[in-house]
Model the fold of this input.
Amino acid sequence: KIKIINSVLSKIQSPIHTAKFIYDIRYNKRVKYGFEQLWQKATHLITSQVPLQTEENNLNFVFSDKEAIISQ
Done:
């Protein structure tokens, strides 16, 4: 995936971001600024994989309290 992103960036005259940054935003589950955590929680009612783990007494986006909503 990084190779594909690098290939695209090589065709752009002045890329704004690095391939690593774009990869992290799209695919990396461990970065807080990426979309993957949000998408995983939106797709699955319960996630057990760290760092995506569903909060106790919660279903992702269903019975979220105020604190969970902010973190989601």
Q: What stands out?
A: The chain has four helices and no strands.
